[in-house]
Design brief:
This protein is an alpha+beta fold and 348 residues long. Helix content is 22%, strand content 34%.
Length: 348
């Protein structure tokens, strides 16, 4: 499997030669000069959902990443970002720090991506709505957030499938007091994990991850093409599959433990230990779209993340000390009044 380089000709208008950018609303390339639309979809788009087998005992062939792109490294967080075509920036999409041009080094080819489906304007609307619903937010929060910077980036992820043959040892309690007893059980179970998403970058924080994890659908995947990146930034894949599997193991541990507890069928079950035989590993190396608002409040940098897939929004926000104090005073007054009324009625 080879991956096309992000040639400028791939994102130039075929009519006027102008620069094109990907339009999330129409899912096509839009010429910034004459307004012509150029489709990116092909009859083979369904192949983007193809998963690739991983054999830990066989030599692993990794495909080279993009060649000839402008690779920028953030001076603040160290993130390496590709800017394709008109996507020019002086700040990192992840942390808003300054970026500098650097020499391209080893990277791995992206197998597929989910194009942006949420436009910049719609992302702004989601952010505004999210801020308006924040409890005890400062009155000037909305105005402050409007002065922030909205950045877009395709963040690198893996998807992993695997079959797990699990043997476990667990325990649970019954009774109380002198009759409290601890019971030990063991069992076996088979589990299939499908499309577990794992961030392929240390810059994909839990906040960013939560913003994109909830509505991943394989049918949204499209083959990697430079046109989808035109007008957006993207982080390269720089981690081998083996590292992704190690990170995936951490996620699977919690999921396996929860499945064991459900298999035991006791609400207070505790997993003492388990072992699993993992087979049938398949993976993809993909990019997922994210909008990130960077803003500063009272000298503290904060961000709000919007999924470029469905608009799901998460974020960091300040609280108004005065509003919290006011709400606390009202709650205290209500509690005192309720107690007074309760006592006055003689119901004790």
């Amino acid at each position: 499997m080879t991956q096309p380089a992000a040639e400028q000709s791939d994102i130039q208008c075929q009519s006027c030669g102008g620069q094109c950018a990907f339009d999330p609303a129409q899912q096509d390339l839009l010429c910034q000069s004459c307004g012509s639309l150029w489709p990116l979809a092909t009859e083979n788009d369904h192949e983007a959902a193809t998963e690739f087998p991983f054999n830990p005992d066989a030599p692993m062939e990794e495909y080279p990443g993009l060649q000839g792109d402008q690779i920028h490294q953030c001076e603040t967080c160290g993130g390496e970002v590709i800017f394709t075509g008109p996507a020019l920036s002086e700040n990192c999409p992840y942390c808003n720090g300054p970026v500098v041009l650097r020499i391209e080094d080893k990277a791995y080819a992206t197998m597929a991506l989910v194009p942006f489906r949420i436009t910049r304007d719609h992302a702004s609307e989601h952010i505004t709505n999210w801020i308006s619903r924040r409890f005890a937010a400062p009155d000037n929060l909305a105005n402050t957030a409007e002065t922030g910077r909205i950045a877009s980036i395709y963040a690198p992820f893996w998807t992993f499938d695997s079959r797990e043959a699990i043997e476990y040892w667990a325990s649970y309690t019954t009774g109380s007091g002198d009759k409290r007893r601890r019971h030990h059980v063991s069992g076996t179970m088979d589990v299939f994990f499908d499309d577990l998403l794992v961030p392929a970058s240390e810059h994909v924080t839990p906040l960013i991850r939560d913003g994109v994890l909830h509505d991943f659908r394989p049918d949204y995947l499209r083959p990697y093409r430079a046109g989808y990146l035109a007008g957006f930034a993207a982080e390269r894949h720089t981690m081998p599959v083996q590292k992704g599997l190690r990170l995936n193991k951490q996620d699977k541990d919690l999921l396996i433990r929860n499945k064991i507890k459900k298999h035991v069928g006791r609400h207070n079950a505790r997993v003492d230990r388990y072992r699993t035989d993992t087979t049938g590993i398949h993976y993809r190396r993909i990019l997922l779209p994210v909008w990130i608002l960077h803003y500063t409040y009272d000298g503290h940098a904060k961000k709000v993340v919007v999924s470029g897939i469905d608009g799901r929004t998460y974020g960091e926000r300040p609280f108004s000390k005065w509003k919290l104090a006011g709400y606390s005073a009202v709650l205290t007054a209500i509690t005192i009044a309720f107690g007074w009324i309760w006592g006055a009625t003689g119901i004790l």
